[in-house]
Specification:
CATH architecture of the largest domain: Beta Barrel
CATH topology of the largest domain: OB fold (Dihydrolipoamide Acetyltransferase, E2P)
Strand content: 35-45%
Order of helices and strands: EEEEEEEEHEEEEHHE
Radius of gyration: 19 Å
Number of domains: 2
Helix content: under 10%
Shape: elongated
CATH class of the largest domain: Mainly Beta
Largest sheet: 5 strands, mixed, barrel
Structural class: mainly beta
Strand order of the largest sheet: 4-5-6-8-7
Number of strands: 13
């Protein structure tokens, strides 16, 4: 199994959330990008199963793709379908969040983590012998894994994603309230988008108007009384009435990680 990676030297940070990661490798679709575009980028081709693996181990990476198969325990294969043509990527859930491996191949997913040499002896819930086929390779040790439904899928069956960890893409449209904005996409609920509430404990700065982002968090139904109580919202009556008109039948995304993208 070959995993091909286009590495880029980035300046600044792409992660706006509380997840602290080093330089982010451009692999998602939309593609994560840097906040400040300074200087020229250097492309270096490498494969995670070659002798050059040491040059990329320790790099942070964000992946958008489709679930391929469950290897065992917390390990699975992700078919990267973004801009980098990585092919099959071995992913290890190294977070403290449980993640239910999808039942169906082709399920869209998003993973953020670090490229490290595969060490079967440190992975819970799997016999090291089950990873023998991947000996000598590196894997993405993911600190965050979510479902990443397409806008049309989310629109058609939002209730099936309620109370699940998802990543949704779109453009930021600010509203007159702290820690709140609208995530817009032409295919997301007929262009209305979804309300995003940034959790207070994550202390996420608000993205700027029209910023293109990937937002990760829990999808919940719009129940204003519950949301106000749990997240200490600062919405005034006028804003509540305005949002009620368009969004009371739509979900709300309670975000704890926001990643800038460049398309």
């Amino acid at each position: 199994m070959a995993i091909y990676l286009q590495r880029q030297a980035f300046w600044g940070t792409v992660l706006i959330g509380a997840l602290a990661l080093p330089t982010l490798v451009s692999c998602a679709n939309p593609t994560p990008t840097n906040v400040e575009d300074v200087g020229e980028q250097e492309d270096v081709s490498a494969t995670l199963e070659s002798d050059e693996a040491d040059t990329i181990n320790g790099e942070a990476i964000a992946l958008y793709g489709q679930f391929e198969s469950h290897v065992g325990g917390t390990v699975f294969l992700l078919e990267e379908t973004g801009n980098e043509e990585l092919g099959s990527v071995l992913v290890v859930n190294s977070s403290d969040r449980a993640f239910a491996v999808p039942a169906e191949a082709g399920t869209p997913m998003w993973a953020v983590g670090t490229i490290l040499p595969l060490d079967p002896t440190t992975i819970d819930g799997i016999d090291p012998a089950e990873l023998a086929a991947y000996a000598g390779e590196s894997a993405v040790y993911a600190e965050r894994i979510t479902l990443a439904p397409e806008p049309a899928s989310l629109t058609a069956k939002a209730e099936t994603f309620y109370n699940q960890d998802v990543t949704v893409y779109g453009e930021v449209e600010p509203v007159e309230a702290e820690n709140t904005f609208i995530l817009k996409d032409p295919d997301l609920f007929e262009g209305k988008g979804v309300i995003v509430i940034q959790t207070g404990d994550a202390a996420l700065p608000l993205p700027t108007d029209d910023a293109k982002v990937a937002v990760s968090g829990i999808l919940r139904p719009y129940v204003i009384a519950e949301l106000e109580e749990e997240y200490e919202l600062t919405w005034d009556l006028n804003l509540i009435e305005q949002l009620e008109v368009e969004y009371r039948e739509l979900p709300v995304l309670v975000a704890d990680l926001i990643t800038l993208t460049d398309d």
